Amino acid sequence: MIIKEQLQESHGMCEYAVYVQALIFRLEGKIQESLELFQTCSILNPQSADNLKQVARSLFLLGKHKAAIEVYNEAAKLNEKDWEISHNLGVCYMYLKHFNKARDQLNKALQLNRHDLTYIMLGKIHLLEGETDKAIEVYKTAVEFSPENTELLTTLGLLYLQLGAYQKAFEHLGNALTYDPSNYKAILAAGSMMQTHGDFDVALTKYRVVACAVPESPPLWNNIGMCFFGKKKYVAAISCLKRANYLAPFDWKILYNLGLVHLTMQQYASAFHFLSAAINFQPKMGELYMLLAVALTNLEDTENAKRSYEQAVALDQCNPLINLNYAVLLYNQGDKKGALCQYQEMEKKVNVLKETSTLDFDPEMVDMAQKMGAALQVGESLVWAKPIKDSKAKQRAASGKPSSTQQPLGSNQALGQAMSSAAGYGKTIQLSSGVGISAPLAKPPSLPLEPEPGSETGPEETTEPQERRKEKCKSRLAAE
Description:
Layout: H1 2-10, H2 15-27, H3 31-44, H4 49-61, H5 65-78, H6 83-95, H7 99-112, H8 116-128, H9 132-145, H10 150-163, H11 166-179, H12 184-196, H13 200-213, H14 218-230, H15 234-247, H16 252-264, H17 268-281, H18 286-298, H19 302-315, H20 320-332, H21 336-356, H22 363-375, H23 391-396, H24 411-425, H25 470-479
Helix pairs in contact: 1-2, 2-3, 3-4, 4-5, 5-6, 6-7, 7-8, 8-9, 9-10, 10-11, 10-12, 11-12, 12-13, 13-14, 14-15, 14-16, 15-16, 16-17, 16-18, 17-18, 18-19, 18-24, 19-20, 20-21
């Protein structure tokens, strides 16, 4: 009302009244109206760089990044030493995927004035380009400049977590929690680390704290579900994962875990449903096709199981378990030649893994491979460093010829490796960017920065499943 009276008295020529009215429109979500009023301010005072910055910000919020860049360049001519203009130009170029120009502008902004927000955006550009090491260097510099910024500490901790540097990750996440004990992103990440190392009860204690802050977080319920899975509380695991799926129906990691739990409970139709949905969102992941083939095998759809194995082998050139499972299926179908071919491919992959990493192979996988080698008459020593005996695996393993009691590599062998690698596949980190600005004296500033979704952690490592009574599980699930 005061603005309206002022504009009537000045016949619409009061620049500051128009400026504040435009800010009010923007806060109400009327971006187009605010743009028109800021343009009016620019006409009333064409030498004001701040008016041009507000015009550019409104264009940015409307998704017109190219137009925003043009206006920011005009503002830069009026004030060449404004770090905010360089920063915002970098953000606009980032959204246009002109990463080289974006980096140049953000580095220029840091030369003019160092700000946490500029470091965050520069690190995000490196992550978008897949340069995790460079992003870590940027965030380390930022932490040295601003050691109490919990967002920077959490982001750096998550990056170390993604690389498997758990000690450094724990250090930075711990520092973040020292400054802000209620930082739910850091708590969630710390709980994820504990869960990865099998401390399910401690992780659940952390997740209870997070649940108070963000009760509708899909990653939270995903991780809680996998904690229950590790504790062999399968019905509770399904309940939590279903809630996560309700909150994030397009997250393939949650669907992957649901398929995993249903396979463990020998509910193969449900497993097929969730794994098929996961494949629709993540069609290039070979392990999903392998688990789908396990479900199809138990549903007695051998032909489609073979097709799924073929797709898995074509997509994943590293995982020897895919070839071993495929070999067992072919052997059970009487195709010894095809089984031998897949077995030899598995041996090649194992040799490569032994040379390039210190990966410990699943004991049941080792035992099954030895039995399969004996059945195919290719020797019993094989490529394994030392034989590991497992009574359960011996009961299911091939003993020289296919028999009616022989079970293909189903839930136990397939899931043992799948669950141990789930954490590796699920560490897709999305870094968040906050909004933090310092206001000039006369007019509120403009920073076109939109917050990103919070960081997610993926499927967690779980323990090896055991045999259980199928009908009892079904009735409990129905009751749940």
